[in-house]
């Protein structure tokens, strides 16, 4: 195994107790070790100690393993927007939502880094990632409109949030040491404001 | 033919004189009439009065016909960034570049609308569109860095510009009458600033 995968294994400490979590772990390890294209569903299932049939109960294909968290992430963003104080400025609401998302990535940094290293090597996966980000922006914009924020302000605030998330995430991935994603998100929002108000 | 396609045909007035332009026109007409998936390269070539072999001299596949302008668009953005006044704020430079891009879309509104209607019906084409937009942001950010603009300001300014282009373009596509894209881009930049500085 590569140093990264070994660290990941150690970082995880143990295998996830549930089948879906084990399949995600096994898939990430194999994608990093052998490459995404070279890994088969059969190999993922075997490493996770499960059958291919079980794999397909959770995921439509091996690409979806990398995006299984997108639904929960969208729910988190949407519920943060929905429960924000009424008087809050839309961009402040978006900032809170993106910070909350950052905190969940921070909790599983090793897994996020491995996932990113797999995606960065494959154009098709990058396209999929971009469309998921666009969906997140769309969902947050809708959440703002439901709170009475008019267009184009709702969409522009949401797009700004996703742009900040993208850049802050890149900085977090490439940073040495123990960077804190929520803090990087706060810094990047401030820098964004400075850069675009010039 | 549909009313849109007839208007397009009338709007064009005549077939483009060069083979590449004719292939693009023929492809757009067929994609709108029959759907992207249902159209074959043979049909496109036939409508353009050319051979399949000629088609493949210009385009790798029928998807690429929809993105043939991306290279020129990127050059326009990059050269606008490169030739901006030295003292100009980075976000003002990005604004000029996006406005220049808007002017080229404005010149061929009918074709842009048809193209957009084809892309909006196909997830794979939408993903491709998003990755092209991400490349444009990357190219502009690189242009700013070459002018000495530090990160993350360079990337954030470029991402802001692409977010504005995306929203302004949507407004332009959905607007009735004779909307002016460069003007919509200027308005959207102002609204973006108002929305994100709150």
How would you describe what is shown here?
The structure is a homodimer of 198-residue chains. Chain A is mainly alpha-helical. The first copy, chain A, folds into 2 domains: 60 residues, Orthogonal Bundle (Arc Repressor Mutant, subunit A); 128 residues, Orthogonal Bundle (Tetracycline Repressor, domain 2), CATH 1.10.357. The model of chain A has no long low-confidence stretch (mean pLDDT 92). The interface between A and B is medium-sized, with 32 and 32 residues.
Written as H for each helix and E for each strand, in order along the chain, the element string of chain A is HHHHHHHHHH
The structural class of chain A is mainly alpha
CATH class of the largest domain in chain A: Mainly Alpha
Largest interface: A-B, 32 and 32 residues
Quickly give the CATH architecture of the largest domain in chain A: Orthogonal Bundle
| CATH homologous superfamily classification of the largest domain in chain A | Tetracycline Repressor, domain 2
Strand content of chain A: under 5%
Rounded mean pLDDT score of chain A: 92
Number of strands of chain A: 0
Oligomer: homodimer
Rg measurement of chain A, Å:
18 Å
Contiguous runs where pLDDT drops below 50 for at least 5 residues of chain A? none
Describe how the helices and strands are arranged:
The structure is a homodimer of 198-residue chains.
Chain A: H1 3-12, H2 19-34, H3 41-47, H4 52-58, H5 70-82, H6 90-107, H7 109-119, H8 123-146, H9 153-174, H10 181-196
Helix pairs in contact in A: 2-3, 2-7, 5-6, 5-8, 6-9, 6-10, 8-9, 9-10
């Amino acid at each position: 195994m590569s140093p990264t995968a070994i660290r990941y294994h150690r970082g995880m400490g143990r295998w996830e107790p549930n089948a879906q979590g084990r399949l995600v772990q096994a898939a990430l390890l194999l994608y990093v070790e052998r490459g995404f294209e070279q890994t088969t569903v059969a190999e993922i299932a075997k490493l996770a100690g499960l059958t291919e049939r079980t794999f397909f109960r959770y995921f439509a294909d091996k690409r979806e393993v990398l995006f299984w968290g997108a639904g929960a992430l969208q729910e988190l963003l949407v519920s943060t927007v929905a429960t924000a104080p009424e008087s809050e400025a839309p961009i402040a609401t978006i900032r809170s939502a993106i910070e909350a998302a950052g905190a969940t990535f921070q909790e599983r940094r090793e897994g996020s880094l491995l996932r990113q290293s797999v995606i960065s090597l494959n154009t098709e996966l990058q396209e999929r990632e971009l469309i998921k980000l666009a969906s997140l922006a769309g969902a947050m914009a809708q959440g703002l409109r439901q709170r009475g924020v008019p267009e184009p302000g709702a969409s522009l605030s949401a797009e700004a949030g996703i742009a900040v998330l993208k850049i802050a995430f890149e900085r977090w991935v490439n940073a040495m040491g123990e960077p804190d994603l929520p803090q990087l998100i706060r810094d990047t929002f401030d820098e964004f404001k400075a850069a675009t108000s010039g």
